[in-house]
Amino acid sequence: MENLPLNLTRGLLATSPIGVILFLMVGLRWGAARAGPAGWLTAFIVGFLFFGATPELLAYSQLKGLLLSLFVLYIIWMALLLYNVVNEAGAIDVISEGISGLTGDKTLQLLILGWVFSAFLQGVAGFGVPIAVVAPLLLGLGFEPVVAVVAPAIGHSWSVTFGDIASSFNALIAATGLSGLELAPWSAFFLGVACFGCGLSSVHACQGRRALRHSLPALLIIGAVMASVQYLLATRGLWNLAGFVAGMAGLVAAFGVTRLAPYRGQKSAPLKASKMGLGVAVSAYLLLIVMVTAAELWPPLHRLLNQVVITVHFPQVETTLGWVTEAGVGRKISLFGHAGALLAYASILAYFTYRRAGLYRRGAASTILSQTARSAIPSTIGIASMVGMAMIMDHTGMTIILAQGLSRLVGQAFPFLSPFIGLLGAFMTGSNTNSNVVFAPLQKSTAQLIGVAILVILGAQTTGGSLGSMLAPAKIIVGCSTAGLEGREGLVLRKTIGYGLAITALVGGLAWLITR
After folding, report:
1. What pTM, to 2 d.p., does this model score?
2. CB of 158 within 8 A of CB of 119?
3. Tell me: the pLDDT tens digits for 308-338?
4. Could you say which of 143, 373, 406, 512 would form a disulfide bridge with 147 (CB–CB 3.0 to 4.6 Å)?
5. Please, which residues have CB within 8 angstroms of residue 356's CB and are 6 or more apart in sequence?
6. 3-class SS of residue 366
């Protein structure tokens, strides 16, 4: 694979698709369904005219993008289905009242759901599920729609690397050829720092500076528990369980914090009379947790569900400028073991649970399906166009041009930039896994070239990729879909981008100090 000559013009052209997306979503507040196609068209034109993309290359890149889009959309469609199943039964209101009964402190409610529970869900599910599930719950507690999406978007991002059975961390291992025991300490350290940053940022973003002081005891206690548990498990070879168990430990710690003096005195709203008990109301989410945990951690069931896998082999393609994309397999989709399939199973079981309890009106099934289909359309357009854009950029060398340009621009300050490269990869593809696959080898090579600690750089890379989850339009779309914010994803991105860059800068600063 040849390197493309790097110059200012080529660097600016490579930046243009992302620049268009940011300008339209952050500057003009366009929704993803409008901004995504504009970014895709920019990448298509620039790739064809200036980066030597051939019709064959563009066609294969879009077929690969279609496969990745289906992987993501499978989750979005089924997350929307689960939400509508729960909402149509009236369970969202009951769950919200139950959390109010646990604590009437709005800041603690925000932390428990947006920071702790979303991290737990990331541990058991993955792509976008935490935002899709938590946003409606926060809405039910009376939080504004933008806040309901921003809190879990920021709050869950620190847990992405070791979440979903550490899929992103395993990608880091595969891409670098280094062992997990070598990579785990610095990765877990930086992610532990990010854990506190995400908790603080979610409170500040949603409730302002005044709430920070009040939330500090809860943040320190819960954050210390989650970061420590994740570090201990990851560095002892149990990285596949690190995110899941850290989230579970955080939930236990959060329950204890509600009994502390600063929060114990808060008055809870009285529960409204309801024929639905809290246990029945939360049954959909309990079913989801049991389903995902069993599917991932019980080997016989895991093997059974993952017997049917859609796999597509793509040939090698090359631009007229000599940039080669090697032959390989696109994103594999396990038809019955995918996170979207597990959401579907939970949705079906929850529907029959609520129906047996007499919680649905006549025609509920039709209403659920029509609402799901209607809200899925803008999400589908946004995801498909942005993933297609990312694939064009990857297959024409634009992605690598961006990373190389940034690394050469900063020279010996490269360690500070390292997590930003990881963040860029996650922003473009919506996946820390993809970010690690694309950029970890580049980061490793650059660290060797300039003589800095490789393991520190790679830890910063995957941490930046995790934090990129709060900015990735593909994930923001997921949350907005279940919070009634379709077409207003730009508002959420405007709210999260400053915090994402600030926490990433903190990680970069630490990486720079450590490597000195």
Report:
1. 0.73
2. yes
3. 999 999 999 999 999 999 998 887 888 998 8
4. 143
5. none
6. helix
What secondary structure does DSSP assign to 228-294, as a single string? HHHHHHHHTT-HHHHHHHHHHHHHHHHHHHTTSHHHHTPPPPPPPP-SS-HHHHTHHHHHHHHHHHH
Q: Which residues contact 476 (CB under 8 A, 6 or more apart)?
A: 32, 131, 149, 153, 489, 492, 493, 496
Sequence-distant (6+) residues with CB within 8 A of 169 are: 161, 162, 180, 183, 184, 187, 234, 239, 462
What are the CA-CA distances from residue 254 to residues 94, 198, 233, 394 (Å)? 20, 16, 20, 42
Torsional class of 484: left (φ above 0), alpha (ψ -120 to 50), beta (otherwise): left
Q: What is the DSSP letter of 30?
A: -
Q: How far is CA 458 from CA 56, 119, 228, 450, in A?
A: 34, 22, 20, 14
